[in-house]
Each structure stands twice: as C-alpha cells, then as structure tokens.
Specification:
Layout lengths: L26 E4 L10 E11 L4 E8 L2 E7 L6 E4 L5 H8 L5 E9 L9 E8 L5 H11 L6 E3 L5 H9 L6 E4 L3 E3 L15 E9 L10 E7 L2 E4 L2 H15 L3 E4 L2 H16 L11 E2 L5 E5 L2 E5 L4 E2 L3 E4 L3 H18 L3 H5 L3 H15 L17 H7 L19 E3 L2 H8 L17 E2 L6 E2 L3 E2 L1 H19 L7 H23 L3 H20 L21 E2 L9 E3 L1
Parallel strand pairs: 11-14, 14-19
Antiparallel strand pairs: 1-4, 2-3, 2-9, 3-4, 5-7, 5-8, 6-7, 9-10, 11-12, 12-13, 15-18, 16-17, 20-25, 21-22, 23-24
C-alpha cells in the first residue's frame, strides 16, 4: 500500500488558459521538454479531439522525449447545401444574417455515386464548432426537410482535420507549423511507439454483491501501485499515481459502464478535481442509449475519453479480439482515433474508409440517407435472395475428404467482379456490361467502384499478415492481432454493400448470386457460408481507369 501526504505534496498541473473566441494560430505546448515554436517536432499522433470552448482541434504527439500538445485554431469545419442553382443567391443571402453562420460561398463538388462532373453547392461555415449542427437543422427546416440536400454534416471533426492535412492517428508525422506525414497511410510494415500502459482498478465495499454508485470507495490501483484510505484520499491518490507514472494508455474493465462514472460521482461529492488525462476533464462524452439489433436489445453506455491519454476498456470488441496491435491497425485505416475506434464496430471503420476515399475524390457525403428500395416482383425476390446453396452430406464413414475454403470469399468476389452500388446498372455499360448470372443486372466494366477500391488493399493486407503470423519472429503477436482485426473488417464488407437503396440491394443480390455460382461449380461436399449485416454507406466515389483486380485466393486443407 502507498499513502500520500496530500497537504504537503507538490501537484504540478498545467495552468488553465483563457478561452479566446478570436482566431489564433496553431500553438505547440510541450508536456515535458520545451520546444520553441517553429522548430520541427516529430512523433506519432496519439490522440486528437475538438475543443468546443476554444474552437480548436487539439492533437497529442508521442515522442521519445515526451508527449506534446498541439492546438490548431485555424481549422474551420463546414457543410454543404444543394439547392436549384437559381435559388443559391437567395439562400446565401438569408444564411448570412444567422448568428450561427460565419461565412458562405459557392463551391463545386460531386454529390452522387456515379456523378461525372461536380455541381454548384453552397458551403456553410459555422461561427463556432458547436453551431454546426444547429445551422444544419435551420437550413434543413428552411427547405421543409425535403427540398434541400445537406452534405458533410455528421462527419467527426477530427476525421475532417486528418483528411484536410493528409495525416492519420497512430501515424508518424512531422510538425513545424504545418503537418507532414512521414509514412504511407497503408504501409504494411510500420513502427508502433512503445507506449506506457497501466491498468486502473478500484476496490469497492459492495454489501449487495454488485457494485453500485453509492457504495464506498476503499482503494484504487494503477499498475502495481495501490492507494487506500478515505474516499477523498483515494481520489487524490489516483491523481498522484497518474501524475507519477504518466501512462500513455489506461486500461480498465467496465470503464465506460461503471468505473469512470463512479469515480466522477465520488470526485464531485468529495470536491476533488479528478485528473486522469493530460488535460482536465473528458471529451466526446455521449449519453447512454439502447438499440435493437439482430433480435436483441443492446445497451451502450456513455463514453469517457481522456485528453492526451488513451482510455481503453479491455472488454471493447477490437481490444478483446485483436489486442492493442489490432486496434492500432484499425485506427490507422479508418482515421478514427484509437479511443473512438475502440468503442465502435469494424463496420463503422469500413464506412469511415469509404468516406475518406470519397472525400479524396471530391465527393461529399449525404446527411440524411432516405433512399427507399424500389418495388420488386415476387419472382425477382426469389431469384435474387434465395440464400446459399448447401450440399447435403451422405451419411456414413468417408475417407479422402478434401475441404476447399475460399480466403475472404465475399470481399474477393466484390473486388474481382467490381461489385459496388454505383457499378450496378450503370448507364455506360448497358450493352457490354458484365452480366450477373441468373439476374437481370449488369456490372460496370469501364470504371472501378468505390467498394472494390476500398477492399483491394484490405484483402492484400490480410493475405500478407496471415503469411507473416506463421513465421516465428518478435512481431508474431503483432501480426496475429492485425490479421484478426482485418478478418472482422472484411466480414463487415458484405454488410456495407447491402444497404437500403435499390442499387445496394441489387449489389447484395449480385454478390450472393456469384457465391452460388461458385458453390455449384465446386465438387466439395462442404456447406457454404453466408454473411449477414445491415450497415450501409452512401459516401461515393467513381474514377475511370481500372486495373484487373486479384483473383480469390484458395486455401486447400
């Protein structure tokens, strides 16, 4: 046990700064050694979050000499409005008088999956970060919720920032007033900084057997050090342990569901300022919610994200299934910070990758995707959605059985046959498009679709890490984590193509039809597998010039 002389103990915290509303330049605030502005700082992006009070984006760089805080107040997010061109001047004039709007201008952007040319849109820049959603709702209501189409409203601010500057979380960068990535975004081999990791846990007097918010706090531990005493002493002890050990990653068990809200409630009751991050407080806090999925109701607790440190619950899916190495891989690919990505699904990561690729091609993302499925006859439904074909095995004892397993079956089919929402029933290949066997649909042969463009590097990465994890090297565990998370990421790819729109549903049918064709032509007695899901992404991109995609790899056991 460890006890602290609280009254005499030196507590070194960063002084609070005034909250300015006027634009300020980027500032770099070192957490340990001082580095003057203008000098080059090189490190890994550990975390990033918006500061809504200062209208800035804060990034934390891990370097061998310490963690550095970079604050950028020059970043200004925006969203786009599509209206008939004759109405643009009037809408621009009306928005100019709103308190929530700082500026407007007419820009050219692509808005559709198969849009060849950009079209005029009204870009709206909110006065403050917190005004973005309010301004979007006002514009939406002015269009009676159906006349105007709004884009790029619900993109995360940090994701926008990464896209604008060409950087990504957990990536090696250099900063000297401007950002420069020092490694490729999709590099197969990359270095992960040696972050210091500790587990935060508490001991509670729980007479009911299950810890409750009102139960007394007895002790707390961080790593191999423990503090006890009164509740106030324990809270001060947690602050002191965090300050002394200075971990980069704080692991918890049930941190979002109980531990963090419990400690926060005890700190408020005791009048102690709980400081678990490198800056005070939490960021990105969201209310708890329940939702219905796959026949069950799932409860999602509030999230408690630390500033300048990573708070990771060991029960989160990515951490539980693939460890920290898999989470880093997913965060780099999706451009979502590790704290956020740990609380989201691989399907959200895949959607984010589509959005990132679409934005690099100048495509904006529709805010409210209200695209109902077109009417289909009973015959169309039966032909397009019969499910996988299953061979009935013969009862008895058999010898010389061979199992043929396709590696990443659905992703490889989508890459090989260019299956994507905008390549289904494209107007450019009505006569010479690739026909879907047994269905009336055709696939584009002139342009490579968004989903194959996203999937191809993932399939190649999966193949590489699957090979590397079999070699006995010091990075074998790292390769296993990356391979595992890519497996789950590719599983969700079929879910993303299904969607709710007509073309997405047709693409889903085309994929399943291709699967049945392969199963029928195979002589294996094994039953086929099928994927299920319900996520969709309407962010789109279509570019001319296609390179023949790789054929599916086949594993024979």
């Amino acid at each position: 046990m460890r006890s602290w002389p609280w009254k005499s103990r030196r507590r070194c915290g960063r002084a609070r700064r005034e909250h300015f509303r006027s634009p300020l330049p980027r500032t770099i605030i070192p957490a340990k050694p001082h580095r003057g502005r203008g000098r080059r700082t090189q490190g890994w992006i550990l975390d990033a979050h918006p500061d809504y009070e200062r209208d800035s984006v804060v990034l934390w760089l891990w370097t061998p000499s310490g963690v550095h805080r970079v604050e950028d107040r020059t970043f200004r997010p925006s969203f786009f409005v599509k209206v008939p061109p004759p109405e643009l001047p009037d809408l621009q004039r009306r928005l100019g008088i709103l308190d929530q709007v700082a500026a407007t201008r007419v820009v050219m952007r692509r808005t559709g999956l198969a849009a060849e040319e950009p079209e005029p849109l009204l870009e709206v820049v909110p006065r403050h970060f917190a005004d973005l959603r309010d301004a979007a709702r006002i514009v939406d209501s002015a269009g009676k919720y159906y006349e105007y189409e709004l884009y790029d409203v619900d993109l995360r601010l940090t994701q926008r920032y990464f896209l604008q500057h060409g950087i990504f979380p957990m990536g090696l960068v250099a900063y000297d007033g401007t950002w420069r990535a020092l490694e490729e975004h999709f590099a197969l081999e990359y270095e992960v900084p040696p972050l210091k990791r500790d587990v935060l846990d508490v001991r509670i007097d729980a007479p009911a057997g299950i810890p409750r918010m009102d139960d007394r706090l007895l002790a707390a531990s961080l790593g191999d050090e423990t503090v006890d005493g009164s509740e106030e002493d324990v809270l001060h002890g947690i602050n002191a342990l965090i300050e002394d050990r200075d971990p980069d990653v704080v692991f918890t068990d049930g941190g979002d569901a109980f531990l963090m809200p419990y400690l926060q409630k005890k700190a408020e009751a005791s009048g102690v300022e709980l400081r678990l991050g490198r800056d005070p407080g939490f960021h990105g806090t969201r209310s708890a919610k329940s939702y219905f999925t796959y026949g069950k109701i799932v409860y999602k607790p509030s999230q408690y994200l630390l500033k300048g440190r990573l708070h990771l619950d060991r029960g989160h899916f990515a951490v539980r299934e693939s460890g920290f190495a898999g989470l880093v891989e997913l965060s780099r690919l999706s451009s979502l910070t590790p704290q956020e990505q740990a609380r989201l699904t691989p399907g959200t990561a895949f959607t984010s990758m589509q959005t990132n690729l679409a934005h690099r091609d100048g495509v904006v993302v529709l805010w409210k995707k209200n695209l109902p499925e077109a009417f289909k006859t009973a015959e169309d439904l039966v032909l397009g959605d019969r499910g996988g074909f299953i061979f009935e095995p013969e009862v008895g004892l058999h010898e010389g059985i061979v199992e043929v397993d396709y590696a990443s079956l659905y992703p490889n089919i989508m890459v090989k046959h260019n299956i994507s929402q905008e390549t289904l029933e494209c107007p450019c290949c009505l006569l010479n498009g690739q026909r879907v066997p047994g269905l009336k649909y055709h696939l584009c042969t002139r342009r490579l679709g968004l989903i194959p463009r996203v999937l191809r590097p993932l399939v190649e990465r999966k193949r590489y890490y699957k090979r590397m994890k079999k070699e006995r090297t010091p990075l074998q565990e790292v390769y296993e984590g990356r391979d595992t998370i890519l497996k789950w990421l590719l599983v969700t790819s079929f879910s993303d193509i299904r969607g709710t729109a007509t073309r997405a549903t047709a693409a889903s049918s085309a994929t399943r039809r291709s699967t049945r064709t392969r199963a029928t032509s195979s002589s294996t007695p094994c039953g086929s597998r099928s994927g299920r899901g319900s996520r969709s992404c309407m962010a789109s991109s279509t570019r001319c010039g296609s390179v023949p995609p790789p054929s599916p790899a086949i594993c024979v056991r």
